[in-house]
Amino acid sequence: QEIKTQKDEL
Amino acid sequence: MNIFRLAGDMTHLISVLVLLLKIYATKSCSGISLKTQELYAMVFLARYLDLFSDFISLYNTVMKLVFIGSSLAIVWCMRYHRVVRRSYDRELDTFRYWILVGACFTLALVLHEKFSFQEVFWAFSIYLEAVAILPQLVLLQRSGNVDNLTGQYVFFLGAYRAFYILNWIYRYLTEPRFTRWISCVSGLVQTALYADFFYYYFISWKNNAKLQLPA
């Protein structure tokens, strides 16, 4: 499964 | 987390604190655009939909709550606080921002990282933030002289995204496969919109004069 680009920025 | 992103987040936090200070200390919101504040509330609500679903770090969660809470509090204050609302420049703050909201949402439906509810709203929030300052800049030009705290608020708000651009360059150089084109291009547009403000802000600082934006 395509990894969800983690939104680690505000 | 890198120093550029931390500097960006702290600068963003300072801009919010300066705005809260101005409204609380002077009990006035003259020179502040309610429309920009409402756009920022939409930006944070659309961007932080993952607030309860994805836990990244305590810092990340706390900052999200601070930004959502402060933007809603400022909108409430400017609309309903019986003293503050009297100083709102209603007749000058007339930017028809629903056009911006509609255009950004349409763009997000077309251009996003993944076609999912959360990702489309995230892209929408990125595009909307890029143009959210427009009503405020228009109001500054119309209202002529700008008080110090308002000038500082806009300055820090513009500077934070410039730090984020350095952060994206740093991450692009140090992390394999790091690409955030939507954020980067939007961030460049957002910072570019402040260019003339930064210029007049620097001139006023150099001449130690009041900040004057040409009408």
TrEMBL record, chain B:
It comes from the Eukaryota. It is found in: Endoplasmic reticulum membrane. GO terms for cellular component: cis-Golgi network; endoplasmic reticulum membrane. It is a multi-pass membrane protein. This is ER lumen protein-retaining receptor. It comes from Nicotiana attenuata. Its main location: endoplasmic reticulum. It holds the Pfam family ER_lumen_recept. GO terms for biological process: protein retention in ER lumen; protein transport; vesicle-mediated transport. InterPro entries: ER_ret_rcpt. The chain crosses the membrane at residues 55-76, 97-115, 121-141, 153-173, 179-202. One of its GO terms (molecular function) is ER retention sequence binding. The gene is ERD2A.
